[in-house]
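--- STAGE predict ---
source: upstream dedup step, 1 unique chain passed
mode: sequence only
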Amino acid sequence: MNNAPNLSSKAAKVETYKRILRDILDQRPSGTRQRLATALGKNRSFVSHISSPAYPVPIPAPHLEIIFEICHFSQAEKSTFLEAFTRAHPNRLKSVRGGPSLRSLKLDVVDFGDAAKNREFDELVRETARRLARLIRHGD
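--- STAGE serialize ---
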């Protein structure tokens, strides 16, 4: 069948962007995978699955902005990742980019005097905002 080379080529393209994500995660502080899992509303094993080049299952496009935020992708890393992702899935980003755009909101909040508590608080606020946005979007 002619589909076999096409499938292996597609799998190689998926491996490419998953390898980029895995390498970035490996460079980030301990706990990043768990924070990412929490932000995505998934188990930590899901993060291992989507960042493993051994698994050909694609990363869901709607998760990309959260991945970029939690993993603190540099602009260069984000560009490289998106190029590889687009080669693997030429039309996936169009539907995501057609959705609502994101904006930043600056808040002054209490400083707990503890970096871990501050990070936990910040992630709780971010996750609450994401959940509220999803709730409002589903209501439309």
